[in-house]
Amino acid sequence: QDWEQRQEEDTLLIERILLLVRNVLHVPPDPTEEQGVDGDASVHDRVLWALHISGMDDLLKFLASAQVEQQWALHVLEIISLMFRDQSPEELAALGQGTAGAEHGEDTRELETLRQRELAEKRARALQRPSRHSRFGGSYVLQGLKSIGDRDIVFHKGLHNLKSYTHDLGKEPRRVPRHRQA
């Protein structure tokens, strides 16, 4: 049911079920009672398998990820932490890899060698170019345009600024008083 259609009894029932699952998973292991063969599933593992078979793990995933079911988030978080109580992070990380782990290691080594080669090329390119940038763009003589005297204009800016050249470049525009403005 959607949360809008739930009665107060339904909400209490959901909370009680979540608390029951949490309490069942919270029972500490008793090694004297569990005298099984090495590699045999413990009571905790069998309870987890029963939860998986019943579909309760899918319901817990739904409750954890649904935006409208945020009121159960702490209960679900506690249940999930109790599910992984006996597991170490290294075991969980290596569990699903199998043969893919060897391929992953090979890919990692290959990527590392490519990264080292790229860094070496980058260092070589950095050594080839000078470390400081010269802001001096050069001086150019504009033939055909006369300056104040009879000489050609000497242009001290870059060639890309040549198109916007005027004789008034760098001069302060004449200010017209307010009462004489058009």
Furnish the topology, listing elements before pairings:
Blueprint: H1 8-26, H2 43-54, H3 56-65, H4 73-83, H5 89-95, H6 100-128, E1 140-146, E2 152-155
Antiparallel strand pairs: 1-2
Helix pairs in contact: 1-4, 3-4
Describe what you observe in this structure.
The protein is built from six helices and two strands; from the N terminus they run ααααααββ. It has 182 residues and is mainly α. Among the domains are: 8-30 and 39-88, no CATH class; 134-164, no CATH class. Strands 1-2 form a two-stranded antiparallel ribbon. A hairpin with a 5-residue loop joins β1 and β2 (152-155). α3 crosses α4 (73-83). The longest helix has 29 residues, at 100-128. The protein is elongated, with a radius of gyration of 39 Å. 3% of the residues are buried. The model has no long low-confidence stretch (mean pLDDT 81). Keywords: Cell cycle, Nucleus.
